[in-house]
Specification:
- The chain is α/β, with parallel strands linked by helices and about 280 residues long.
- It has nine helices and twelve strands.
- The chain has helices spanning about 15, 65-70, 90-95, 95-105, 110-120, 195-205, 210-220, 235-245, 255-275; strands at about 25-30, 35, 45, 55, 80-85, 105-110, 140-145, 150, 155-160, 170-175, 180-185, 225.
- A seven-stranded mixed sheet has the order 1-2-3-4-5-6-7.
- The chain is globular and about 55 Å long.
- Bound molecules: zinc ion.
- Zinc ion (ZN) binds near residues 87 and 164.
- Zinc ion (ZN) binds next to loops.
């Protein structure tokens, strides 16, 4: 018996045995923002002066998919200038060492998750991942709540979103197409796997209050283009299909961010109800 909210290694089987089956089309979301992720993990590319900026690099076994996606959009992975990470789990920094090796990109991770990876590397989920060769990320820049980073005309803002990990960080930045500029928001970490009873007891951590507070803090942010760090969170591939079918641009939707945050609260409440009723065990 284990919690249905816990990390499910079986779910990662495809990623390790047939990662190519997760290939997804790379595409322009809006203006200078692109999707370069796979069917499970999201990576986003923002074109900026000085070279593209990446947000999350995904699973280590999917590194070839990421490189292919970047090339297929006409960008050069050797010219990536910065890599921002939403949090310190291996499925968000898996290809960072590779991209940094190609491009020399500066890497960014919250100070809290950098400390987590140094002091408690087992919380990176690497031991669960069968990727013994992968080592925890040591970022060039340790980010704190409220930090901003400018690249030519683009400023990327950090807002702490602790809960899923102690240093989950949401990122906000303008996306521009000609005269039109919208505000994108990338959520720092939504999974309940680190908040469920099994994980808390196994690792002796408790980030539940942080998680609930972060939902309220994120609701303060106006977001025109909601981005997730897993592809299903903002239904990215289905939105792409709708866009191709001529249904306008479904990524431009100021309601999507608050709807997602409220759905997180409801999922969390359901987990608590399940744990109290004992129906969390499978
Ligand atoms: Zn995670």
């Amino acid at each position: 018996m284990s919690s249905k909210y816990a990390f499910q290694i079986e779910k990662l089987k495809t990623m390790y045995e047939t990662p190519w089956a997760l290939a997804a089309p790379a595409f322009r979301v809006f203006g200078n923002l692109y999707f370069v992720g796979n069917r499970d993990g999201a990576s986003w590319l923002l074109d900026a002066s000085g070279g593209p900026i990446l947000f999350d690099t995904n699973y280590p076994t999917a590194d070839a998919l990421l490189i292919h996606s970047i090339w297929s959009l006409g960008f050069d992975p050797c010219k990536i200038q910065a890599i921002f990470h939403t949090h310190g789990h291996f499925d968000h920094f898996g290809a960072t060492a590779l991209i940094k090796g190609l491009s020399g990109a500066t890497t960014y991770l919250s100070a809290a998750d950098a400390a987590m990876l140094t002091e408690r590397p087992e919380l990176s989920c690497i031991p669960d991942s069968r990727n013994a060769y992968l080592t925890p990320l040591i970022p060039d820049i340790e980010v704190r709540d409220g930090d901003t980073f400018s690249f030519g005309g683009v400023t990327v803002s950090a807002k702490a979103c602790p809960g899923h990990t102690p240093g989950a960080m949401s990122w906000f930045f303008p996306v521009t197409d000609g005269e039109h500029t919208y505000r994108a928001g990338l959520h720092g970490g939504a999974g309940l796997n680190t908040l469920c009873r099994d994980y808390r007891e196994q690792h002796q951590v408790d980030w539940r209050e942080d998680f609930l507070r972060s939902i309220d803090r994120m609701l303060e942010e106006p977001v025109d283009i909601f981005l997730g760090n897993h592809t299903g969170q903002n239904d990215a591939l289905r939105k792409y299909e709708r866009m191709k079918a001529g249904e306008g641009n479904p990524f431009l939707d100021p309601a999507a961010w608050p709807i997602f945050l409220e759905s997180l609260r409801e999922k969390y409440n359901q987990m608590i109800r399940d744990e109290e009723a004992g129906t969390d065990q499978i």
